Automatic annotation (TrEMBL):
<dbReference type="InterPro" id="IPR006016">
    <property type="entry name" value="UspA"/>
</dbReference>
<comment type="similarity">
    <text>Belongs to the universal stress protein A family.</text>
</comment>
<feature type="domain" description="UspA">
    <location>
        <begin position="156"/>
        <end position="289"/>
    </location>
</feature>
<dbReference type="InterPro" id="IPR006015">
    <property type="entry name" value="Universal_stress_UspA"/>
</dbReference>
<dbReference type="InterPro" id="IPR014729">
    <property type="entry name" value="Rossmann-like_a/b/a_fold"/>
</dbReference>
<feature type="domain" description="UspA">
    <location>
        <begin position="1"/>
        <end position="141"/>
    </location>
</feature>
<dbReference type="Pfam" id="PF00582">
    <property type="entry name" value="Usp"/>
</dbReference>
<protein>
    <submittedName>
        <fullName>UspA domain-containing protein</fullName>
    </submittedName>
</protein>
Amino acid sequence: MFTTILVPTDGSAGAEATIDHALELGQTYEATIHSLYVVETGETPAGIADDDREELYAPSERQGREATIRITDQAEAHDLMAAREVREGVPHRTILEYADEQGVDMIVMGTHGRTGVDRARLGSTTERVVALSDVPVLSVRMTDDGDDTPEAGGPYERIVIPTDGSDAAERAAENALEIAEKYDASVHAVYVIDTTTYDLEDAPRSIIGLLKTGGQNATEAVAEMADERGLEATTAVRRGVPADELLEYVSAADADLVAMGTRGRAVGSGRLLGSTTARVVRRSPIPVLTSN
């Protein structure tokens, strides 16, 4: 399913470390690895000559060549087909354009890049790609202590699938189950009743019952999809602040991967996905696979 994997990089050690996850999936699916560096040109100052423009962006272009070559070398060392490119433009738009042109099946990105302002730039770029991408995005969180290297990629043995019963959640589940089947991973489907939307202490029992039923139906649907693939599955319905509850559940399950949709729906539990997905992507210590 994932035969072409794109790894955008900003040249930092942390961003390039996402290659571990790309390589793991690349070897599993025999995928081609594409590396892309975007020289953020923005608005070129008025009146600047072409020669001056080249000089202005030359250091970034050189860094981009070096960064993409390193990733390509690693991919080829793992006997994978590889391609690389350096482009100019607005990072998230250029990444999405490249993915569309090359028929990319998955984008693997870090949620942090360099320190300070540059790290914020890559982080915001990742969030924009997550929100707008037509293909799944695997977000790998970087550490904040100066060591930007995430845990090594894979294998994925325990996968958590948050759901609210929406179409986006179902697509996320399908992508997660594709990976789970490859790794014979256990599946953990979870639904969170959003207590920021409902004051459950004062809510009528009928409302609480409907919320629980909705959660049970949503998680059991994922479990049935897993069962059809011969996978072990468990379900859970929890109450609380969605992002907090999901991250606690991920920790308790000792999960290797979270897979969730980027667009939820405000039914029963409130908008579980969407803004919750952004919070989970920012805070999750393990990779998050998102689907629109």
